[in-house]
Amino acid sequence: MFLGPLFNASQLYSQKTIVRGVVLDASNKEPLPFVNISFSNTNIGTITEQDGSFRLETTKNNDTLLISYVGYESQLIKIKRFISQELNIELTPTEMNLGEITVFAGENPALPIFRNILENKKNNNPEKLEYFNCEVYNKLQIDLNNVTDKFKSRKAFKKFQFVFELEDSSEVMGKNYLPVFLSENYSNYYYQRRPRRKKEVIIASRISGLENKSYAEFTGQMYIDLNLYDNYVNVFGKQFVSPFSNTGMLVYKYFLEDSAYIDNNWCYNITFKPKRKQERTFHGDFWVNDSTWGIKRVSARISEDANINYVKDLIIEQEYTLFNDTIWFKTKDEMFADINIADKAQGFFGRKQTVYKKLNFAPPPDNFFSSNQIEESVTVDTFDIKNKSQWDNLRPDKLTEEQEKIYEMVDSVKNVPLFRTVTDIIYMLAYGYYLYKDFEFGPYFKTYSFNPIEGSRFRFGGRTSNNFSTKLMLYGHVAYGTKDESFKYGIGALYMFKKDPRLSLDVFYENDLYLLGQSVNAFSEDNILASILSIRPNDNLLPLERYRIALEKEWFTGFSTELRLFYGNVLPSEKIPFTNVQQNQSWDHLKSAEITLNTRFAYNEKVIRGEFERVSLGSEYPTLNLELTAGLKGVLESDFEYYRVRASVSDLVEIKPFGFLRYTFGAGKIFGKVPFPLLVLHEGNETYAMDVHAYNLMNYYEFASDFYQSIYLEHHFQGFFFNKIPLFRKLKWREIIYGKMLRGSISEENKTIWDFPQTLGELKTPYVEAGVGIENIFKIIRIDAIWRFSNLGNPDIQKFGLRAKLQLIF
Length: 810
What we know:
The protein is mainly beta and 810 residues long. It has eleven helices and 45 strands. It has an 18-stranded antiparallel sheet that branches. Strands 8, 9, 10, 11, 14, 15, 16, 17, 18, 19, 20 and 21 form a twelve-stranded mixed sheet that branches. The model is unreliable at 1-14, 96-100 and 210-223 (pLDDT under 50).
């Protein structure tokens, strides 16, 4: 009885009406772009491409197409149901009664209209207002697409067949899809111009399959808002030229198509398309009022050949309403995205609908906005998220039956054992840990590695999962080397007193081998990739026993301090002895006790918070870091007293349309007498992997300093040049140039405390390396060619090298 309905449903869904063809102008046989085509009395439709072609399909019982286009007579065309067919459609132009506008002889009539839009853009941008607030409803839906019969019949989905009852055909892309995620937010949104502040108070949120309310803000207004009045629109981290950009006439072609009254406002209709191929642009149309020159309605679709990965399509539709006869305010905002790793593979549709209402221009109460954050999002428990009647009152439109079932379906899928297994494997590949009940085993890439000191190294490690506790995480590892026949181990505990803002205590003990002066971004030495990609065997590891206690306090998002206590006992090796030959002395250890205060400030930073970890989404402002350390001589037999100061400033700067620049400026100083292991051992890289935090042609233990300054610059052109070269354009490669400079010195007294290893020395002249690179090779590979320009007389160095990196970028 259970299989019967499923069988019948699968038969029904296998019957599709597929229509493809082209739409032409009946008078001159030219193809018509942006023509609206839909199945009558449904919301299933599409628009024609620039060559007039279209494709549309449905599983619904419908036999009529509606074709409409401004300036042309609409048509209803009968079609055959449940077969594939091809149509050539010709539309007849109608007489257009355009409103009055002054056009110079020979000038495109759309251009003076566009110039008026630019001249009045500041007046029509809602962000010119001193204050406003409104109520916002956000709905975000994610669908699995390319759901074929072959995909559904896989053995792995035998216990998931019930989910395919929600399968449908996309009204835009002509692909079968399966809804898998739905979120809804209802919030009060507040804006202040001077000083600029934005605040969203989420009063109701509902997310399928998730109960953690900290995720609600990331489906809210501030994280998924696009303002087309800006010159550039951020699409998955890539800057697209807005059709209303100040440079629009250099990038787009505009065409005046029609004029009509919309809500008692006389408006012109203008279509636009890019002048050049493969640039990050849109095509579409908009309606603009003839007196205020404010946008009434806009539909924009990214160019099919735009240089962006995985995003096959993106459609933005916005509607504006005139308030108080002075300001056009956005009242409806819809987005649709088609994201696929490969053309025929399963991917995702993302749909976002936002409705704005109850606009108010009154100022908020005093001290309403945060004094230290430009953008702030808070969640309050005002509504019962499971109360259906309350949600029905909040929604501008009732959920479809399909959308109502998404919440039930996600909960049902979570209870299928196979689903949990699949998600565990995906989690392991993404984070390196395999989840089993209360424990996460890993990282898997450290299970086996090799080096000259340990030979083959086998490691077992892990940490407790969120199932164990969302307050306390225990972690540790044990390792064994077959050559040195010794065990290494580490154990720690992280306790979260508070998650937002963060207050945590981390306690850790380790007895293992360690590479002094290794970049924080480098592969750790027990990572199998470090072993495989090593340029030469790494015998620079030293035995280190260390204790660490760290108390981190986040004062507000983006501003945090960490108080860290450290004690270490490092031992020498045959290659790196602790000696002073002139004084005929040697040491069998170096003990150091330190107290460190680290302060980090990233103004208006956005972060995603998990139970124990957080991921920065970046800030529009530079990130500042200041670290103060004191070496405590005599504490736990510590050998030296010293003081260390390190500071850095880093940022990512958009330089539109030429890509973006990353920079880091750093400096540091050590006060006091210290041997070489306590100096700043500059980060070298002896692997073929690109490391942006290291000097990629500097060897390990090559340079040290007690006073240094550094500069790192890296510019990503995002295909600005390659997009203009016909042969390279198809590859969608992107250009990079980068350079690093390091200047440092060592005081005379610090040179003589212990003898330096044979390879280690002072920077007699600044170290400089620079390179050019290509990223987005096969969408995931970056390769850099790097040259070293100074200190070329040092032994065993590379004057030129190639470095590679795997990265997943849009």
